[in-house]
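Training component of the fellowship. As part of building independent skills, the fellow (R.M.) carried out the full modelling exercise for a liganded target. The chosen ligand was zinc ion. The inputs are recorded below so that the supervisory panel can assess the work.
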Amino acid sequence: MEARLFSFKEEVVPPAILYRFIATFISIWKLRVSAKSSRLMIFTDSADVKIDGDHDMRFDIQRNRFIVSLIHKDNKSSIIPTIASTAQECLTHAITNISNFYFSVSGDSACNRDLPFTIQIGIPCGTDLCFFDHTLSAKEWICPEHKTKHKTNDVSIWFADKLHTKDDRCTENCPGLDKVWLDRQPEDKHLGRLAAKLTNEDTRKIYIRLQEVDPALQWNIINESSKRGGFDIKINALYDWKKSSVFASFKQLQQSLNDEDIDIHKLCQISREVKKEFNQPREKLQLRPSISNTQKLPDHIGNQTFQLGIELGLSVVEMQQIENDHVTNLRSQTEEVLNKWRILPEATYEVLAKALHRLQLSSVLSYLTYEEDLEEQMEVGLAEKVKEGPQEQVEVGLKEEVANRIIHDIQNSQILDYMITHLVISSDDRRRIEQHAGQDDQNRALLREVIKRGEPTYTLFIDALRTVDTQI
Ligand SMILES: [Zn+2]
Ligand SMILES: [Zn+2]
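Fellow's submitted model of the complex:
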């Protein structure tokens, strides 16, 4: 489940306006029908709508808050990102229009006025939902109230790449990015995409406008220190602006493009998905690429390594380090980029394929076999998990060969009991797992299920391993 909140700046919001939101949204999407009572899912302060066969959305009114949750029928890691980002845009647009109508008191033009609400992203924290501002760009957030650390990559899905448009063109009356996006900080990935769409000269012009201290001198220094010229200079300049600003925003980027008469719709383009046609089923695309698959790629990537690394989600700083570690060896740079990326929680064949498409390296896709490496996936996943968890609860050495030991050594019946009690798997799932003949195969099926589902099944599984008497 994902939640998002429109929190109104006025302490007291006229109830009429909140109900108007619900009325509008149930005219955009279809009300959900309860499977049990076959009644429409609309109540005094909430309503459920159906987005498509897999996704539902719920609206809740709580005082001056309007809470939106997006739910996938299986689990949250299956939410299709473009569905979340499209719903976000649509909701923000409608809420802005309705609010402008209700709150309009002064004569200033609608686009300059501040939105009468703030947008926050909800994250399950203990038994509650806690909220952080949508402009937060860090990968981690510590809830000030409960002092709990959360990864933010799951919830950033509301700002995932937007849907692809025909020939990557904006609509005729496209005003550029909306206000919610303009207030955000570009991720390194966005700077990489923009760098690829600008000439060296255009980058220099906007850098001179954006950078506050000694821009001309800084530009020369960046030129001298960028080893490979071309893309390196452009990304280093854009990143230099981001790191030296207190809060670098898309708004500042758009302003500088505007001032230099450069098409601002380049920003729309970098917020959209690339056109993609996959000839693989979705389950395969969701797998973590195997080592043997990524090892085939460095021979075909050439000098686009820096760009590929950022597009895959590595930071500019990580890329600068990799570049320094292998100064003259481009192939080892590419290898290190892929090795570093492959163990991130979000690494899948789909992410890799999209990145290659965007870099116009689609021909490289033919070297992929989309195989899975189950033991290794589990090891990587568990290692991640162990790093997050409280150390004293975990035996040292869990990372090594842990998946193998799980497969060969555990008695899964107690683990399954535990998981059923905690409602993360159903008795149907259990039957499916237990239909495999041997203990090893059952354990393999269980692991596959856990990997496929992600959170919260993962955490519960680890808890089960710790609680139930095993030697792991
Ligand atoms: Zn909290
Ligand atoms: Zn546009």
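The panel noted the following from the submitted structure. The pocket of zinc ion (ligand 1) is lined by residues 125, 128, 130, 143, 145-146, 148 (CB under 6 Å). The domain at 282-367 is CATH 1.10.533.10 (Death Domain, Fas).
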